[in-house]
Write a structure and sequence with these properties.
Blueprint lengths: L16 H6 L21 E2 L4 E3 L6 H8 L3 H8 L11 E3 L13 E2 L1 H15 L3 E12 L7 E12 L3 E8 L4 E5 L3 E6 L4 E6 L4 H12 L6 H4 L3 H6 L4 E8 L7 E7 L3 E8 L5 E8 L7 E11 L11 H4 L2 E3 L24
Parallel strand pairs: 4-11, 10-16
Antiparallel strand pairs: 1-2, 2-3, 5-6, 5-15, 6-7, 7-8, 8-9, 9-10, 11-12, 12-13, 13-14, 14-15
Length: 342
């Protein structure tokens, strides 16, 4: 599976307009505490299982928040002392599992279902669909809260893509025309534009690396979906069929690699995905993500102007860059460094 996709890395929204533009990585949301606390309130990214240190943090507070022993945090991050710096990124290890490891198993029927879906998607020169994404976020009360975003997607292989997003956060629009990638926030009338590679696959990868732009359904719109989905699999099994999802008969499969466990419902006849649910192995809070797919159209008529926006082109330009500033030097205490630029 690709490192940039929802199915094996991602996560969850930011409050900033720039983040709304350049970070669809829903996995970058701030994680909540187990209860009200004054510390360990920094941003947690469940994509990479990293926590950003804020003023007043101590390893003990971070340990309590994620229920990971201090010594595990120190060993996992190769820390020589308990000194922290504001902006420092800590990798949060998963809590030790009590269950015995499961023997790897790749069931042929499950792989056949995934491959048939991948071939159906790859065989379409153009396609459109709607994805309703629901992401769980921690709350100070304990139980997770759910936030949703809707993605209306249109693509034409190999070099056209439009994604219009609405949801519980700021609306965003993305336009890729084979030469440039444009990210637009209508409410703020802000736009970020960058030169883009010659294919959808390369553009998605470049956008993620350059600015944290993340599409949770990346594995389904690349040139070879099955290759991305099957890379690194250690488990895959067929669960049976359902008549209750997506208004059609679906095959249910579950599959996992070292990063994520996914359950998917795929049309038994048309081989198109209807629903997927995921839990990320590196997320100590085990928050759940879900995508419901609808309104599939394969090889719809498309026009060149569908992949551009005159209104976005006339908006106020901002830099196409990652919304999170570089971390401060990893020396001294977090408290003593709290006034330094981050």
């Amino acid at each position: 599976m690709s490192r940039s996709c929802w199915l094996n890395t991602a996560r969850r929204g930011s409050q900033w307009a720039l983040a709304a533009l350049t970070c669809l990585a829903l996995g970058a949301a701030q994680a909540g505490d187990k209860g009200p606390r004054h510390h360990a309130g920094g941003q947690y990214d469940s994509l990479s299982a990293t926590y950003v240190v804020v003023a007043g943090d101590e390893l003990m507070f971070i340990s309590e928040r994620f229920e990971v022993p201090v010594e595990h945090l120190m060993d996992h991050n190769k820390l020589g002392s308990d000194k922290l710096a504001v902006g420092q990124r800590l990798s949060v290890p998963s809590a030790p599992a009590n269950a015995a490891p499961v023997t790897p198993m790749l069931e042929p029927k499950a792989l056949d279902v995934l491959q048939a879906m991948g071939e159906r998607l790859a065989g379409a020169r153009a396609l459109s669909f709607t994805a309703l994404v629901t992401e769980e976020h921690p709350s100070r009360l304990g139980p997770a809260l759910a936030y949703t975003s809707q993605y209306d997607v249109l693509l034409q292989r190999p070099d056209r893509l439009r994604v219009v997003t609405a949801g519980d956060g700021p609306a965003t629009e993305y336009y890729y025309d084979g030469k440039t990638l444009m990210a637009y926030v209508p409410a703020e009338d802000l736009v970020a534009v960058t030169e883009a590679p010659a294919t959808i696959d390369a553009t998605l990868q470049a956008a993620y690396q350059q600015a944290g732009v993340y599409l949770p359904f990346t594995d389904l719109i690349v040139a070879d979906p099955y290759r991305d989905l099957s890379e690194g699999l250690v488990h895959a099994f067929y669960m049976g069929q359902s008549t209750l999802v997506g208004g059609t008969l679906t095959d249910m499969v579950a599959f996992a690699n070292q990063d994520v466990f996914v359950q998917a419902w795929i049309g038994a006849e048309d081989k198109l995905p209807r629903l997927a649910r995921a839990v990320f192995a590196k997320d100590p809070l085990r928050l759940r993500s879900a995508m419901a797919f609808s309104d599939w159209k394969l090889d719809p008529a498309t026009a060149p102007e569908a992949f551009a926006s005159a209104k976005a082109g006339a908006a106020k330009p901002i830099e196409f860059a990652h919304p999170v500033a570089a971390p401060a030097p990893q020396s001294g205490s977090a408290e003593s460094k709290s006034t330094q630029p981050k």
